[in-house]
Design brief:
Strand 6, helix 5 and strand 7 form a beta-alpha-beta unit. The chain is α/β, with parallel strands linked by helices and 421 residues long. It is built from 15 helices and 15 strands. The strands form two sheets. It has a 13-stranded mixed sheet. It has a two-stranded parallel sheet with strand order 8-9. It folds into two domains: 321 residues, Rossmann fold (3-Layer(aba) Sandwich), CATH 3.40.50; 76 residues, no CATH class. It binds adenosine-5'-diphosphate and magnesium ion. Magnesium ion binds next to helix 2.
Length: 421
């Protein structure tokens, strides 16, 4: 029988911390097919932020298991929990339901000797313009998101508009944007439109095209002169859900996501400096911003492998450099081969449910080269079909692969397949 495992925990940390500060993910699966049964617990290391990939075909349990990880964070002892935060970028609109207990899988929870529970430390933010839609759908909302145009960069807008870097449109946009930045004042879309309109060097066609792009941008109601501050939104011990499922512009979603990701990494770098400084001077460790894990649903839309979008560079940066300052990453996707390889190659933990294509198996192999794609395929195919939520977990720290059945959720899962009842 396998021992209790802490996925993502190095052997040194395992000796020191044993199974403390770890989340309960599920149980080891032993045997195959109908004979498969569950044995000891599989835990997840929460001492450090990790770069995690959750993949598998539609309806296999990806969102469900991401929520299990979040529930475990929310269930940590108060003192530990207060050092961390989770931020969920949710274009699907399913994480708000963590506020409520899972009353639909009562029998399963009893089998696992668990009790349903909702979490009030889950806070939901939505774009202001769609607020009434959420209210009408009876989705509890804690606040609205808006971002200040002056916090973005010209590059962000160029990517959001899909402009060629060296095109006349991009160059005119960049020049006017940067001159507003240099003025040192906050500015909104109107100010940028005015600046472009009075640009004597730009052609009328260019001005008109930019004005129309910017007008559409401002109509979504998210990008303004004043925006919310990330330090006001993210509180230690909490899960912040940015639900933009009802905001239909993927470009605006990537703009928000990129900016938030960049700000969070920046705040953690600042905080880390303070923490180091207080260690050197012998004072109490002073944390100004919690260690934060970022969760991306439909991650291929935010850091795709075939083009750059406004959030690409920031997410790649977190994947590569986030561990040191304390920013973790969970990317969730049906198609790992559609995620940028810079993110895949940095993943130290993979939870993979069944996959549909050879390309996706190849992508997994790129993350974890110890096993050949054929071997990974074999392991995935051996997962018992009758146990919903069965996955393989690839663990870089332990250099092992485990077959695991993810535990049932204690909070309500709103992401199940739509069904006519
Ligand atoms: N570990 C699990 N235990 C019990 N039921 C699960 C588990 N994982 C998934 N399910 C069931 O499967 C459904 C689909 O899971 P979900 O995570 O929404 O799929 P997707 O991979 O598309 O994100 C859920 O609504 C839930 O009923
Ligand atoms: Mg899902």
């Amino acid at each position: 029988m396998p021992y209790e495992t802490v996925v993502g925990r190095t052997r040194d940390d395992l000796e020191k911390f044993r199974t403390n500060v770890a989340g309960y993910l599920g149980k080891h699966i032993v045997g195959t097919g109908e004979d498969a049964h569950l044995t000891t617990k599989v835990l997840l290391d929460l001492l450090k932020p990790h770069v995690m990939l959750i993949c598998g075909k539609r309806g296999s349990g990806k969102s469900y298991s991401a929520a299990v990880v979040i529930e475990e964070f929310l269930s940590l002892p108060e003192e530990t929990r207060q050092k961390m935060a989770f931020v969920v970028f949710d274009p699907v609109g399913i994480y708000w339901s963590m506020k409520f207990p899972n009353d639909t899988q009562t029998k399963l929870l009893t089998e696992w000797e668990m009790e349903s529970k909702g979490f009030e430390n889950v806070k939901v933010y939505v774009p202001e313009k769609q607020l009434t839609e959420y209210e009408e759908a009876e989705i509890p909302v804690d606040g609205t998101i808006s971002i200040a145009l002056s916090e973005l960069t010209a590059e962000d807008l160029i990517l959001a508009f899909g402009l060629e870097r060296t095109s006349e449109l991009a160059v005119t946009l960049e020049k006017n944007f940067n001159s507003l930045v240099e003025s040192g004042n906050k500015f909104g879309v109107d100010d940028l439109v005015d600046s472009i309109a009075s640009d004597v060097k730009a052609r009328k066609e260019t001005k008109d095209a930019l004005t129309s792009l910017l007008t559409v941008l401002s109509q979504w109601g998210v990008i303004k002169k004043e925006g919310v501050k990330i330090t006001d939104l993210i509180k230690p011990g909490q899960v912040i859900v940015f639900d933009f499922s009802r905001l239909k512009s993927q470009e605006i979603r990537t703009l928000i996501t990129g900016l938030m990701t960049r700000e969070i990494l920046y705040q953690r770098i600042l905080s880390r400096k303070e923490e180091e400084l207080s260690k050197i001077t012998g004072g109490n460790a002073k944390t100004t911003f919690p260690i934060t894990w970022l969760v991306f649903e439909e991650a291929h839309g935010f850091v795709p492998n075939d083009r750059d979008v406004s959030s690409s560079a920031d997410i790649k940066k977190v994947a590569k450099e986030g561990r040191e300052p304390g920013v973790g990453l969970i990317t969730i996707t049906q198609q790992p081969n559609k995620i940028h390889p810079d993110v895949l190659s940095q993943s130290d933990i993979v939870i993979s449910f069944r996959l549909t294509s050879k390309d996706d198996l190849e992508a997994l192999h790129r993350v974890y080269q110890t096993y050949m794609p054929e071997e990974l395929e074999k392991l995935i195919n051996k997962l018992p079909r009758h146990l919903i939520g069965s996955a393989i977990i690839l663990d870089d720290a332990l250099e092992k692969v485990f077959s695991v059945n993810i535990r049932p959720r204690i909070s309500w899962h709103s992401g199940g397949t739509a069904q006519i009842s």
